[in-house]
Amino acid sequence: MRMHQMDGGGGGQVMDLETAVKDGILGGGLVVGGCGGGEKLDLGKMIVELDSIETPPVFICPISLEPMQDPVTLCTGQTYERSNILKWFSLGHFTCPTTMQELWDDSVTPNSTLYQLSYSWFSQKYVAMKKRSEDVQGRVLEILETLKKVKGQARVNSLRELKQVVITHDSAKKTVVENGGVSFLSGLLGNFTTHVVGSDVIGILVNLELNLDAVSNLIQPAKISLIVDILNEGSIDTKMNCTKLIEMLMEGKDSKAEVVSSLSLLVGLLRLVKDKRHPNGVVAGLRLLKRICLYEGLRSSVVSIGAVPQLVEMLPNLNAESLELALYILEVLSTFPKGRLALKECPNTIPTVVRLLMKISKNCTHLALSILWSIFELAPEECAALAVDAGLAAKLLLVIQSGCNPLLKQRSAELLKLCSLNCTDTIFNSKCKLTIAIR
User: Fold this and answer.
1) Within a 10 A sphere around the Cβ of 40, how many other Cβ atoms?
2) Which of 92, 127, 245, 322 has its CA 20 to 30 A from that of 181?
3) What is the pLDDT of residues 367-383, one digit of tens each?
4) End-to-end CA separation in angstroms for the chain
5) How far apart are CA 120 and CA 127, in angstroms?
6) Rounded to an integer, what distance in angstroms lies between the CA atom of residue 24 and that of residue 330?
7) pTM for the complete prediction?
C-alpha cells in the first residue's frame, strides 16, 4: 500500500487529522459510515482490494506501515493499529514507538474519528473502483457483440480497442473468458484470416487464460500455420506475441511435437533471436527454441536450419539470461550425433565456449563443460589441441580450484586429462604453463 507524501520530503504521519481534513488531503464530501445505502462494506476487504492505490499517511500504522483497521490512540496522542501496539506492549516495551516517550498510562483509546474517516475514504475509492470495473466489463461485452457483426476495418478497430482494454484491466480479461470470448476469438483465425486481424487476435489471446478446449482449438493445423506466417512477417511486438502464444499452447501435458514441427517456424525463431535490436525478442525466441528442443524428433530439424553455428556466433554478445538459454539449447543438441557433429565442425565452437567458462554463472559453466565433453568424444586429438590453444587447461584449473560442485570439478579433471593425453608435451606445457608435477 503506497502512501501520499504530505510534507514533500518523506512518509509517516507528518500532518494531524484536523489539518488533513481541512486541506482536503482526504478528499471532499466524506460520508461517514458507508457508501450510499447499500450493504455495509468490510474495511479489511476494501484495504486488500485497494492495495495498489496511494493511502494518506494518517491512515497508516507507524509500526506495520499498513492501513489501520482498528486504530487506537495512546496517552501521547499517537495512533496505532490495536494489534500492533498490544504486541509492542507484550514484548515488554512501555514507551511510545514513534516518540519513544515513557508512557504514564498504558491504556489505549479507540480513535473512532479516524476510523470513520478511513472507512469513508476507502469506501469512496472502493465504490469508484467497482464502478470503473463494471464500466470496463460492460464495454468488453459491447465490443464482443460488435465483433460478431462487423468485418473489414471496423473489425480491426474493435479488436484493437479490445486488446487495449484487456492489456489495461484485469477485469476485462475475466469478462472475455467468462463470456465465450476465447472461443470466438480463436474462431477468427483460419486460412482466410488477414494478417492484420490475426495479429490483433493473437495480441488479445496471449493476455488470457487458455483452457484445454481453447488450446485444442488453437493447435489445429490451419491456425498454427497462420500464427507461424504472422510470426515471420509481423512487427517485433507481433513476433513476440506469436512466440508467446505458441509457448502457451505447448505447456499442456498433451502437447504434441507436430504443433512446432514446421521448418518455417524454426527459421522464423532463428531470425528473431538474431535480431540484436530487440533483446526481449531474443529471449522470447530462445525460450521457445529451448522448449522445442525438448522433443527429440525435432532436434535434427533445428540443426538442419543451421542453428548451431548461428547460436555459437551469438554467444559472446548475449546477456546472461539469453546466454544461459542458448547454451542449454546447444547442450541439448550435443546429445545426439548430428548436433554433436555440427558443433565440432563449427570453427568457433571450442574457442567461444572455452571463453565462457567461469565467466557468467555456475550453470553456464556446467553447460559449457558438457558441450566441450560431447565434442571431445568425437575427435579427442583434434579438439584437445584447439581447446588447449584457446586456454582451456587454465580455465579447467580455475574450475577445479573453485567452490563449484563436485560434479563440475570431476568433469573438469576428466577434460584436463584428455587435453594432457591428446596434446604434445610442448604444446600442453607452453599453453597452460603446467609442470609435470601438476599433471
Assistant:
1) 10
2) 127
3) 998 898 888 888 877 77
4) 62
5) 10
6) 62
7) 0.67
